[in-house]
Design brief:
mainly beta, globular, seven-stranded mixed sheet
Length: about 100
C-alpha cells in the first residue's frame, strides 16, 4: 500500500539524471531540487511516468509540491532523493 507524502518548496536546480552508464534514455529523467522555507532540501527524480497536474511545465524559481511514496525504498543520502509520482506547480491568482 502506498503512503503518499508531499514536499512543498521552490525549485533551485533541474539537472539530467542518468539511469545507466551508456546514456540510454538521456533527457527522459530529471533531478529536480526543491528547497522549502525552512531550508530543507529534497531531490525529486522525475521520470516519463511522473504526472504533472494540468501538464504544467516547471522551471527554476517555480513553487511546486512533489508527491512521493514514503514506503518506497530510498537511498540513505543527503539530501533525500525520492521518485516523484505527481508534481504540482503553484498557480498565480489574479492574472
Amino acid at each position: 500500500m502506498k503512503n503518499f507524502q508531499a514536499f512543498h518548496g521552490i525549485i533551485t536546480m533541474i539537472d539530467e539524471f542518468l539511469i545507466d552508464e551508456t546514456g540510454e534514455g538521456s533527457g527522459c529523467y530529471k533531478l529536480i531540487s526543491v528547497k522549502n522555507g525552512y531550508g530543507n532540501l529534497v531531490n525529486f527524480i522525475v521520470a516519463p511516468n511522473t504526472y504533472f497536474i494540468n501538464h504544467e511545465m516547471v522551471a527554476m524559481g517555480d513553487m511546486v509540491t512533489g508527491f512521493y511514496d514514503a514506503n518506497a525504498a530510498t537511498p540513505l543520502i543527503f539530501p533525500p532523493q525520492f521518485r516523484a509520482i505527481v508534481m504540482a506547480k503553484d498557480m498565480q491568482l489574479g492574472m
